[in-house]
Amino acid sequence: MSNSIEIPFSTTLLVRDTCLCLHVQRAARALARLFDDALRPAGLTNGQFSLMMSLNRPEPPPMGPVAALLAMDQTTLTAALKPLQRKGWVSVMENPKDRRGRLLVLTSEGKAVLAKALPIWKSTHATLDSTLPEGGPARLRQDLQAVSGMTAEVPKSSRSPRRLRQSATAE
Amino acid sequence: MSNSIEIPFSTTLLVRDTCLCLHVQRAARALARLFDDALRPAGLTNGQFSLMMSLNRPEPPPMGPVAALLAMDQTTLTAALKPLQRKGWVSVMENPKDRRGRLLVLTSEGKAVLAKALPIWKSTHATLDSTLPEGGPARLRQDLQAVSGMTAEVPKSSRSPRRLRQSATAE
DNA sequence: ACTAAATACATTGATATCAATAGAAATGAA
DNA sequence: TTCATTTCTATTGATATCAATGTATTTAGT
Question: Whose CA is nearest the C1' atom of nucleotide D25?
Fold first, then answer.
């Protein structure tokens, strides 16, 4: 019947060139590969490094705040902890103050792995920093912070149940 | 014997505050959720939207260039195409000019889905744009481009075989 | 033309990501 | 206290991501 719907190629180019989501996903994949490669000799991925580093605190944190800090879903954190627990680098303990909760503890082995990874992170990040234009790194961090912050603040009480997932079938 | 290795908490704070990889991953997750939520009524994720939009060209592209455009591994693209093929939105054809290769074709149904998603992308992106400080979006795109570009250019011929994956066991 | 090297993809296995959902414990209102 | 609500986490299922590897095809060197 009707001809198929055509989206102008110029629109495609516009989306390609301007979509911040796309640009961030691209950069995220590129940087993940960069740091994964660099950290491989230490046996860590970039995400594991960030997670374990965030657990290096005076007091072992519960899961919720850690997930929020990393801007990830709580279920993602649960999954991400599994391999670290298996390797004995992170211990997940019951919180005596709140028996629903867990406390995340970096083990001695975990700290050792992290200490080994730290100089790799430093040199990799120094290289990255020096590659960006003058003032770029700080500016970029600021802009990214604004983006991450945008979606973060959901007033605890106004949280409506999540929308139902759309059926996967088209239309 | 020796006490466990301790990484100063100040180092943890430094990494948290300065690591561009972490900042980008955080922003990537936050924006993914933002666009996934918005696009859900259209039945697309942010990644599927970007991928399908990149296929809206006068000539169907082979996989390699598309993977490069999205800064993703070629195997990731293969996997990402699977659900889109199942839904009949993308067709993967043999390239008559090079029988190793494939050509990625957006179907009429795919174009229709994309057309439905487009206004959602526009409004979501407009909101995002207006949330960032003056001049932020363009600046951010530029900086992200620099980051993505950094790791992208591997002169085709100098590609050495990928390093062996590190054994998963610590030490 | 023949063969070695390079190129284009696919498959497998492991981890990462999130929606939907469920369970257990804490909290608050009566 | 009692119970409805909220909070904290785990599980399941689907997709996303990449390393290692394998296969088929093309290209280049002879």
Answer: B100
Does some domain include residue B160? no
- Tell me the sheet residues that pair with B105: B91
pLDDT in tens, chain A (171 residues): 556 788 999 999 999 999 999 999 999 999 999 999 999 999 999 999 999 999 999 999 999 999 999 999 999 999 999 999 999 999 999 999 999 999 999 999 999 999 999 999 999 999 988 888 877 788 899 889 888 877 655 433 334 444 444 433 333
pTM for this one?
A: 0.84
Residue A29 lies in a domain: yes
Q: How far is CA B52 from CA A21, B38, B153, in A?
A: 14, 16, 24
Structural domain contains residue B163? no
| Burial group, residue B18, by CB count within 10 angstroms (0-12, 13-18, 19+) | middle
Mutation choice for B interface testing from A6, A11, A14, A31 by most B CBs within 10 A: A31
Give the largest CA-CA distance in chain B: 69
Structurally, how many domains does chain A consist of? 1
For residue B40, give the 3-state DSSP assignment.
helix
Decide if A117 contacts A39 (C-beta within 8 A).
yes
Q: Assign residue A54 the CATH number of its domain.
A: 1.10.10.10
A30: left (phi over 0), alpha (psi -120 to 50) or beta: alpha
- Strand D nucleotides in reach of protein CB atoms, 7 A cut-off: 6-21, 24-27
Q: Which of A111, A125, A148 sits opposite B19 (nearest CB)?
A: A125
Q: What residue numbers bound the domain in which A64 lies?
A: 14-129
CB atoms B37 and A69 under 8 Å: no
Within residues 35-64 of protein chain A, the ones with CB less than 7 A from nucleic strand C are 45, 47-48
* Residue A99 CA distance to nucleotide C9 C1' (Å): 50
Q: Give domain status of residue A30, yes or no.
A: yes
Measured between beta carbons, the chain B residues lying within 8 angstroms of A145 are 23
Check if B139 contacts A (Cβ < 8 Å): yes
- Residue A128 to residue B150: CA distance in whole angstroms: 8
